[in-house]
Amino acid sequence: MKLVLRIFNIFILALSAAAMVCLFTVPTITFNSNIALDVKTFSQFVPTTDYTDSFDIAYLLGTDKIEVGISFKLGIADTTKVMNGNRDVINNELISKNVEGIAETLHEPVNLITDFTIRSVIKGIIEDEVTTQIQNIITDNSLPYTAADIKSEVGMDETYFKDLSHLLYDSASEVGATVDSVTNVLFDQIDEALSEIDYAMEDFDKSGFGEENKTAIKNDLSSVLTDLKLINSDNTLKQINQISYIYLSDYLKTELSSSIADPAELEQKTAETTPDYADRLLGLYVLNQTPAVVYQVIGYVALGLFIGLFVFAALWLILFVFTLIRTLSKNKPWTFFGPWFWVFGSLQIVLGIGLLVVGKFVLPTINLGMTGIPIKSIALATRTYALFPSMIFIICIFVGIAYAIIKGIVKRQMRNQQNYDGGNNYDGGYNNSYNGYNG
Questions:
Q1: What helix, strand, coil percent values describe the chain, rounded to 5?
Q2: Secondary structure of 67-105 in the HEC alphabet?
Q3: How many other C-beta atoms lie within 10 A of the C-beta of residue 302?
Q4: What span, in angstroms and rounded, lies between the C-alpha atoms of 185 and 178?
Q5: How far apart are CA 241 and CA 119, in angstroms?
Q6: pLDDT by residue (tens digit) across 58-92?
Q7: Core vs surface per residue 58-89: b (16+ CB within 10 A) or e
Q8: Does the model's pTM come out above 0.70?
Q9: Please, where are the H alpha helices in 354-386?
């Protein structure tokens, strides 16, 4: 049975060595998360006009949440950098990179929302202007129709006005576009629509529509564009297909104006696109809003992980050395785990498997109830250097149970053998004495 113990010892030596290797070769901490943002949050960056009141962004995107990921990985060297709570290091290693990733993830839904919203607004402008001019002609000529009747008669449905909106959208998105240039395109489209009706209906006369109507059309268009905050001081238009980024950057600039010392840092740079400008301000905003306690907590966690690394390593090293010595021992080959091994081993389970299970399976089932924070759910996958050692520790639990049983058998056998040997020595001595006496 001693041979069995020594075989077990070799297995324990292998487990201890594997645990120590894992502690120093895997990252100190690997953090991955999946955060679901409520799409209603994006409503503040959607243009608000009479044409957008009925918009359902969740229906538009086909989901009520947008999932973004936050992840980082720290090795031993990185852990030593952040464990003193250095803001610059934490910002560079943990926060800024993730803000960039989140911003990039959000570009697609923001672009989709912007495109749909603006095209819907433009379609509504064209339809309303065409309807207004039709109604004016009906009134001037006392025609026995309604504007809806005429539009239905010539096939001016949703698809028709949607097709017309493409040209106006493109003209409004051009660099250097002005209210006048867009008004000219809109005027031509209205004129074309009225011409189609004039051709299809004999009693419809569009001759009253002309250049004198352009001023009223321009005023209506200018009013909508002003509501959208798209008109610059020189009467040019901001790029309409980037309106959400414009709104976002304006909002962030206002929020940061009281906390950023250098106002030039908040201005858009010459070679910086509007989306890049919004992303940069978003990064500044996140860093500016991150409270000092966050840096302290990160520092303490990093310090705890750093200290724990060497405590756990020492624990496995002691087990390895003691087991090796006992394996080479002739009389008492059994090793000893000791109470501290089980105490600190349990802590490894908490840091290893516990964090992973809670973040990935328990947290998503909890109702967060975070008022004002646009997070619908969070799933975290936090892995530390203790994950694999904690698995090895669980194996050690079963090994320890079997080992204790075998060790008990070996000890009993050794006691029985000692008693037996002692008994033989006593009998031999008695017989020798007796023989001497007889002699």
A1: 70, 10, 20
A2: EEEEEEEECHHHHHHHCCCCHHHHHHHHHHHHHHHHHHH
A3: 22
A4: 11
A5: 9
A6: 776 777 777 777 777 888 888 888 887 778 888 88
A7: eebbeeebbebebebebbeebbebbbebebeb
A8: no
A9: 355-357
